[in-house]
Amino acid sequence: MMLIAALSTVALAFIPLITPSPVIDSNELLVFNPNITYPYSNVIWHRGSTYNVTWETDKIPTEAAENAGVVLLGHSGNNSENLDIAHPLATDFFLRDGSVLVKAPEDIPGRKDYFVVLFGDSGNKSPEFEIC
Ligand SMILES: *[C@@H]1O[C@H](CO)[C@@H](O)[C@H](O)[C@H]1NC(C)=O
Ligand SMILES: *[C@@H]1O[C@H](CO)[C@@H](O)[C@H](O)[C@H]1NC(C)=O
Ligand SMILES: *[C@@H]1O[C@H](CO)[C@@H](O)[C@H](O)[C@H]1NC(C)=O
């Protein structure tokens, strides 16, 4: 029993070293919750234009600073966030960057209940805003 427990402790200890998890790591879900500071509610984006999504970086733990981030567009309705996972607005940036440029898609319907979600943490969803 002792040996098994010791071995599994060793095995668990190595799991985080295998690969830096690209985006969604349950450890970071707990500790890292950066507020999205833009877009905020009442902003209006125009399809095809470029915008600077920003978030707070002052509380990013060292372990998460080098994590790659993903920004997805979603909207409310059908009891779902309707995240457009197939067409991320941005990838390949660091959470520590605090901002990333995104282009509002040209081929989406106008709505007033869009939001963006910054992964690295499932909790940081922007307020709803309009794309027209
Ligand atoms: C996010 O902003 C809200 C409102 O300003 C604040 O209460 C909260 O502490 C902030 N969260 C973090 C993780 O900074
Ligand atoms: C985006 O916003 C951040 C934070 O305000 C700023 O540092 C950065 O220069 C901006 N990027 C562009 C391309 O405007
Ligand atoms: C809800 O689902 C229906 C059927 O899939 C779809 O036509 C409609 O656009 C959805 N509404 C929202 C707000 O996403």
How does this structure look, described?
- This protein is of the alpha+beta class.
- It is built from 3 helices and 8 strands, in the order ααβββαβββββ.
- The strands form 2 sheets. Strands 2-8-7-4-5 form a 5-stranded mixed beta sheet, with no helix packed on it. Strands 1-3-6 form a 3-stranded antiparallel beta sheet, with no helix packed on it.
- The longest helix is centred in the N-terminal third of the chain and has 17 residues, at 2-18.
- It is globular.
- The termini are far apart.
- Bound molecules: 2-acetamido-2-deoxy-beta-D-glucopyranose (3 copies).
- Residues 33, 35, 56, 59 line the site of one 2-acetamido-2-deoxy-beta-D-glucopyranose.
Distinctive features:
5-stranded mixed beta sheet, binds 2-acetamido-2-deoxy-beta-D-glucopyranose, alpha+beta, globular, 3-stranded antiparallel beta sheet, disordered N terminus, 20% helix, 132 residues
Brief synopsis:
The protein is of the alpha+beta class. Helix content is 20%, strand content 31%.
Q: Give the ligands present.
A: 2-acetamido-2-deoxy-beta-D-glucopyranose
Give the strand tally. Answer: 8
End-to-end distance = 63 Å
| Number of helices, counting only DSSP H or I runs of 4 residues or more | 3
Give me the Rg, rounded: 18 Å
Element-by-element helix/strand order:
HHEEEHEEEEE
The strand order across the widest sheet is 2-8-7-4-5
Low-confidence stretches: 1-31
Helicity range of the residues? 10-25%
Write the layout of secondary structure elements.
Blueprint: H1 2-18, H2 26-31, E1 36-38, E2 44-45, E3 50-55, H3 62-65, E4 68-75, E5 90-94, E6 99-103, E7 111-119, E8 129-131
Parallel strand pairs: 2-8
Antiparallel strand pairs: 1-3, 3-6, 4-5, 4-7, 7-8
This protein binds 2-acetamido-2-deoxy-beta-D-glucopyranose (3 copies).
